Amino acid sequence: MGTHGVKVVVIYPRPQDEQAFETAYLEQHVPLVEQKLKGITRLVLTKVTGSPQGNVTAYRIAELYFPSLNDLNACIESDAGKEVMAHAQAISTGGPPLILICEEEAFVYW
Q1: pTM greater than 0.90
Q2: What is the Cα–Cα distance from 65 to 72, expressed in whole angstroms?
Q3: Are 110 and 32 in contact (CB under 8 A)?
Q4: Among 72, 74, 46, which Cα is nearest to 59's?
Q5: Among 13, 18, 21, 54, which residue has the fewest nearby CB atoms (within 10 Å)?
Q6: Yes or no: is domain 3-59+66-106 CATH 3.30.70.100?
Q7: How would DSSP label each residue in 4-22?
Q8: Pick from 77, 79, 99: which is nearest to 89 by CA?
Q9: Distance separating alpha carbons of residues 84 and 82, to the nearest angstrom
């Protein structure tokens, strides 16, 4: 019915210093992702601005799309994938990021 895909979702908790995190994230981490992670087809970067539930610990969400689960697994298990994941851990000063492997079904309405 909808379109299907696979992705890695990384949920970063609110950092100790938001400005320092933003600098490291945008100037170091995102370029590292773009250079090292071969096979990604789409990168979505989201900054959480609020929630109807009040305060939430999620601060940033990254979605990295791949053509197949095999491509995703090959990428994250590679040396480059391990390097990028280690860097994600290193810049996440609010605690370790939650890293999820997801199957997606998307619907577009207009």
Answers
A1: yes
A2: 8
A3: no
A4: 46
A5: 54
A6: yes
A7: EEEEEEEEEEPPSSHHHHH
A8: 99
A9: 5
Query: What are the pLDDT tens digits along the chain (110 aa)?
Result: 667 889 999 999 999 999 999 999 999 999 999 999 999 999 999 999 999 998 899 999 999 999 999 999 999 999 999 999 999 999 999 999 999 999 999 898 98
Q: Phi/psi zone of residue 39: left (φ > 0), alpha (ψ -120 to 50 degrees), beta?
A: left
Q: Which of 94, 90, 105, 84 is nearest to 12 (CA)?
A: 94
For tokens 């998307």, name the residue.
106
C-alpha distances out from residue 23 to 3, 17, 18, 84, Å? 34, 10, 9, 16
Two structure tokens written together for 6: 């696979």
Owner of token pair 């040396």: 79
What tokens were used for 67? 């053509």
Tokens found for residue 103: 């199957």
DSSP conformation class of 65: E
